[in-house]
Design goal:
Elements lengths: L15 E6 L17 E6 L3 E6 L4 E5 L23 E2 L6 E6 L3 E6 L4 E5 L13 E2 L6 E3 L3 E6 L6 E6 L3 E6 L4 E10 L5 E9 L5 E6 L5 E5 L4 E5 L2 E4 L6 E6 L3 E6 L4 E5 L5 E2 L2 E2 L7 E2 L6 E6 L4 E5 L4 E5 L14 E6 L6 E6 L5 E6 L4 E5 L11 E7 L14 E4 L2 E2 L7 E3 L2 E5 H8 L2 E5 L4 E6 L4 E4 L4 E4 L2 E4 L5 E3 L2 E5 H7 L3 E5 L4 E5 L2
Parallel strand pairs: 1-40, 34-46
Antiparallel strand pairs: 1-39, 2-3, 3-4, 4-5, 6-7, 7-8, 8-11, 9-10, 12-13, 13-14, 14-15, 16-17, 17-18, 18-19, 20-21, 21-22, 22-25, 23-24, 26-27, 27-28, 28-29, 30-31, 31-32, 32-33, 34-35, 36-37, 37-44, 38-39, 40-41, 41-42, 43-44, 45-46
InterPro entries: Cu_amine_oxidase-like_N, Mao_N_sf, Ran_GTPase-activating, RCC1-like_dom, RCC1/BLIP-II, Reg_chr_condens
Keywords: Guanine-nucleotide releasing factor, Repeat
GO molecular function, one term: guanyl-nucleotide exchange factor activity
Length: 512
């Protein structure tokens, strides 16, 4: 396999000036409208899902919009459900999201928190609750929110989570705040709902995870794990160097820095990853799974993202959330079908569906229905969730490009033309810090960094490096409005080594 494009961060010690002359007169995509296809972040709740697209807009979808969780200004029994992602209204500049059972949370870039959806127990955090009739559950005072509402008294927030009827937020000082049905005693000794945030007794918090009931895991910045035990803050013994936690239905999980996973909790299923742990609640190392880099949990079991970017899972398969093409349970870790090169996973300890974002920004979902594909059907294998009507069917095999081990992300996926790999220029320009200009009179793009100059013409197999002609096996090309260039030529011109890994279809660039 030959390569044909791209470095990016490429040997910053090597000065470059890139000038690209286009055969046609169109303005290249680096000056056109920002690319809008794809997803950058996701969250799964008990009954719905959230996603932030690459254009920064926030979307919601799921089983019902009765409580306003779609955030589009509708709620009630007559609220429409297209079974597709619905744009959340009245909010922008979102940097983090979280999902509860039937309410959603978002953090804006200014550190404020906004919520919408079910407010039965004060989980919206605006000082109100939805009062319901005993027995029938009919709303007597409807304070559910169909549009994002700012949470009172919270600022400097960096992350949020939702539980069944509770909300949590971490501030930039490492403090943890919560509101809704908390199960914790108030200052007067009583218990009940908190309609506005209160600070919990945890410090130096890195992240948390929530599951069924009052299952709360708190990961501190020192790698230790803590929780509540009958109102007391306690450390879970035997866990050190932890990098991620996941609270599930009856079990909890902790990921250690070395890629091993530990399980603890009531273990209502009796076996986890093939191990009979029914008689212990102390952390036990899971067998049959290693090299894990992230974990989540559904109501049925754990979800693992491995170092090779494959996704694995085990446990109950209530809604098909194991993603193995059937409804069979599995006591041992099994690989989710047809997923590779995954960059992010999402699940919720009170639900039975999962999602994943691939390196190319495409979104995939599976589990107990309303996955966002326009149907309510259970999906036992991952299905593609479109980010727009214009998004083309994603390829089954992705080409990855790594610079010194770091995967690069592009507005247009790399392609292979005549056996050579071509990659978009945009990411190269941005990572190299090159100054780029467009000359409409000559249809020339010029990118300048120090004194090196590379000249390419779309469709022309002759390029120049500092004025010297070089013959290309594959010329620069335009794909979906993006200018792509051969990676081997660019990389070798800038002193970067190139290697092709055929098993994973990965181009490795080494600048050191």
């Amino acid at each position: 396999m030959k390569f044909g494009v791209k470095p990016s961060l490429l040997s910053l010690a090597i000065p470059i000036t890139l000038a690209f002359t286009l055969a046609s007169s169109f303005i290249p995509s680096i000056y056109a409208e920002e690319h809008t296809n794809g997803w950058q972040d996701i969250a799964v709740g008990g009954t719905f899902s959230l996603g932030i697209k690459t254009d920064g807009t926030l979307w919601s979808w799921g089983e019902s919009n009765r409580y306003g969780v779609f955030g589009n200004g509708e709620k009630g029994d007559k609220a429409a459900n297209p079974k597709l992602p619905v744009k959340v209204q009245g909010i922008d500049h979102v940097k983090a999201i979280g999902a509860g059972a039937m309410h959603a949370l978002a953090v804006k870039s200014d550190g404020t928190v906004w919520t919408w959806g079910d407010n039965t127990d004060g989980q919206i955090g605006d000082g109100t609750e939805t009062q319901r009739e005993t027995g029938s559950g009919k709303a007597l005072t409807d304070n559910n929110r169909e549009l994002p509402t700012q949470v009172k008294g919270l600022s400097h927030v960096v992350a949020v989570w939702g539980a069944w009827a509770r909300s949590y937020a971490i501030k930039d000082d490492g403090t943890l705040w919560a509101w809704g049905s908390l199960y914790y005693k108030k200052s007067d000794g009583s218990t009940g709902n908190y309609a506005t945030p209160v600070q919990l007794r945890f410090q130096n918090v890195a992240t948390i995870s929530t599951g069924y009931g009052d299952n709360l895991l708190v990961l501190k910045k020192d790698g230790t794990v803590w929780t509540f035990d009958q109102g007391a803050v306690v450390q879970i013994e035997g866990l050190t160097d932890i990098t991620a936690v996941a609270a599930g239905g009856t079990d909890s999980y902790a990921l250690q820095k070395n890629g091993t996973v530990w399980v603890f909790g009531s273990n209502g299923r009796g076996k986890i990853a093939g191990e009979d742990l029914a008689k212990t609640t102390a952390p036990q190392k899971l067998q049959g799974i290693q090299d894990v880099v992230d974990i989540r949990a559904t109501g049925g079991g754990p979800l693992f993202l491995k170092k090779d970017r494959s996704v694995w899972t085990s446990g109950k398969n209530t809604g098909g959330q194991l993603g193995i093409g059937s409804y069979e349970n599995s006591d041992v870790p099994v690989q989710v079908k047809n997923l590779a090169k995954i960059s992010k996973i999402a699940a919720h300890g009170t639900g039975f569906r999962s999602m994943a974002i691939r390196e190319d920004g495409t979104l995939w979902a599976w589990g107990n229905g309303y996955t966002g594909d326009g149907t309510e059907w259970y999906r036992t294998e991952p299905v593609w969730i479109k980010s727009s009507d214009s998004e083309l069917t994603p390829p089954t095999d992705l080409i990855s490009v790594q610079l010194d081990g770091l995967t690069l992300h592009f507005e247009q996926q790399p392609v292979i033309i005549d056996g050579n790999t071509l990659v978009p220029l945009r990411t190269i320009f941005e990572t190299l810090g090159a100054e780029v200009s467009w000359n409409g009179a000559t249809s020339t793009i010029t990118a300048t960094k120090d004194k090196q100059t590379i000249l390419l013409t779309v469709g022309n197999q002759t390029a120049t490096l500092n004025g010297q002609p070089i013959q290309l096996e594959t010329p620069a090309a335009v794909v979906n409005g993006n200018t792509l260039v051969p990676v081997r030529f660019i990389a070798e011109s800038l002193g970067t080594k190139v290697a092709w890994i055929p098993e994973t279809k990965t181009v490795q660039l080494l600048s050191k």
